[in-house]
Design a protein that fits this description.
2 copies of one chain form a homodimer.
Chain A (H helix, E strand, L loop, with lengths): L1 H14 L3 H8 L6 H20 L10 H8 L13 H25 L4 H18 L1 H10 L5 H24 L8 H23 L6 H23 L5
Helix pairs in contact in A: 3-4, 5-6, 5-7, 5-8, 6-7, 6-9, 6-10, 7-9, 8-9, 9-10
The first copy, chain A, binds a DNA duplex through helix 1, helix 3 and helix 4.
DNA sequence: CAGTTGGGATGACAGTTGTTCACTGACACC
DNA sequence: GGTGTCAGTGAACAACTGTCATCCCAACTG
């Protein structure tokens, strides 16, 4: 009798607002209700973590605090993650996963310079708008207290910079550029795109006025960098 | 008999490597051994905090952990700070205090563009070299979990950007520039100087090779921005 | 020289924390 | 249909946390 009620209580707390989100991961194939349930609680831990991390940093997030939020016994946490920094790394992957989608949109289209800049700023704004908790987490932990998480973020950003560098190298404006210079330009761009995203972060909640102001500044900054790029080989 | 030993033990732990550091604050005037002692323990708390914060973030630093390090009773902490974020704000002021000195050195001298850039990068490198714990703290907490500290850092950086903007406005290259454009350039510079400092942070310990490499990249990035600046009004 | 002040020590308070353990019962597989 | 696997449980652990009222005694004031 007790087992039933407790199971139901767990079902309720673990499932709400999750069933749809993971269904596409499971696919149409029967993956076994067992593993599906495990994935669902794992996702519930990640979601609750992201929620709690909106107003604190990972190093101050308690294991019990998290499991309490999900409605799982403290010990259950260890079935999914070795420790808190393990969960943090998983959150990093999740965050950059959703980012990568949006980036591909930009990489694909070839347009003239100003359109690229406008599109870039718009994609950054949209990413922050639609994934604010994710990016807030990234910004907090990029130089935060948990080493493995810091390294995971650094790796993702390095990867991002490398992709951008190869994109830049393929452009006609890069003729005569050394690989090192292209890389330093890519780093400059990546750093500033992160700064732009952070600027959106602090102001965005339903305030289209200042969001547009930030976007305006961001566009001009990117344009200035592009201007410097186009005169790099002038002597 | 017990009181003596405990007092001595406290004296020892609170004073080491501190007596010289605060002497210039106390001045030559007799300030009262009473208040001098208070200042000394306050400073000891700040120093120990900075030491402990080298490998963790402020939100995870415990009050007892800190007082234990200093050799002071836990309750004694409240004589000097209301709470941890109060100490954090004090550390922010301390950090930017030492930075401000070095910045004035750059602001004063007028030289040609490349020399300014080289000097800037050198000053950043020196600041990180000589005040690594301070800057590590700033980098960690700039977007960290403690709101008052975050705001204190943001205020200091805004002040810094405003000073830089007024410097830029006074330069002949800024003729025809709108105040908004000058401000956006100043923000761009400040953000990147912070990024440069962070880059120095991760690599500096007795590795002149990679320090010089970072400096090289930083110089080229700043030069590219300056190039963009000088063509901003080209049409 | 007394009296007051206040920096600091003390010890206990009531919670909280991360981690481990044996255990259970629903699922998956043969 | 029986059996092993394993996600999740709940209790117990020791260590830790911030906060408080209280006392001590050196340092200041008059």
């Amino acid at each position: 009798m007790f087992t039933d009620t407790s199971t139901l209580a767990w079902r309720k707390s673990a499932n709400d607002c999750l069933l749809d989100d993971v269904s596409h991961i499971l696919g149409d194939r029967p993956l076994g209700a067992r593993q599906a349930q495990k994935l669902r609680t794992r996702q519930a831990l990640l979601d609750a973590g992201l929620r709690l991390l909106e107003h604190q940093s990972l190093s101050s997030l308690g294991l019990r605090e998290l499991t309490r939020e999900v409605g799982v016994a403290p010990a259950g946490f260890y079935r999914h993650f070795r420790d808190m920094s393990d969960l943090g790394v998983a959150l990093v992957e999740e965050s950059f996963g959703s980012l990568r989608e949006m980036v591909r949109a930009i990489r694909g289209e070839q347009a003239k310079a100003d359109e690229v800049i406008d599109g870039t700023v718009e994609v950054i704004a949209r990413y922050v708008r639609e994934h604010r908790p994710h990016f807030r987490f990234i910004a907090r932990e990029r130089y935060g207290g948990v080493q493995p998480v810091r390294e995971a973020i650094a790796d993702e950003l390095r990867l991002f910079a490398e992709e951008l560098a190869s994109d830049l190298a393929a452009q006609p404006e890069s003729e005569g550029w050394s690989p090192q210079d292209i890389r330093m330009l890519a780093d400059l761009y990546v750093d500033h795109m992160v700064m732009i995203a952070i600027a959106f972060l602090d102001v965005s909640p339903e305030d289209p006025g200042s969001e547009e102001e930030i976007a305006n500044i961001a566009r001009r900054q990117l344009r200035l960098i592009r201007l410097g790029r186009s005169h790099w080989l002038d002597d």
